[in-house]
Amino acid sequence: MPYDPDNVFAKILRDEIPSTRVYEDDEFIAFRDVAPSAPTHILVVPRLVEGVAPASPAALTEADAAMVGRLVLTATRIASEQGLAEGGYRLVFNSGEDAGQTVHHLHLHILGGKALGPVA
User: What is the pLDDT of residues 83-102, one digit of tens each?
Assistant: First the structure.
């Protein structure tokens, strides 16, 4: 699916929709999910570059490798800052409808705060 510049995360990045941000820098923002799947459920989203972002993990190219590495490292740091490091946490990318992706803007879920069930 092509990138939609009016998706909910793009609107959050443009401050058109409010969010509870827990982190932001020049490359990423992180905010609490409005429908959490765990006591701590944070989304880490890359900022727009020239008005777009990858729509999903399937849209990534070799040119995105460094950004994805920084995305994972940023999520790990946020998880630690949120007190999840000791008990553990899950990082999740969803890609496509069958995986449950509902917003077509690359994003990484941080889930934790309780014992999480099996992945599949």
Answer: 999 999 999 999 988 898 99
109 belongs to the catalytic site: no
pTM of this prediction? 0.93
Q: Domain range spanning residue 16?
A: 8-112
- Within a domain: residue 76? yes
Catalytic residue of the set 41, 104, 107, 109: 107
Closest to 42 measured CA to CA, from 81, 98, 14, 99: 81
Q: Which two tokens stand for residue 5?
A: 């510049």
Write phi, then psi, for 43 (nearest 5 degrees).
-105, 135
119 belongs to a structural domain:
no
Query: Do the beta carbons of residue 107 and residue 45 sit within 8 Å?
Result: yes
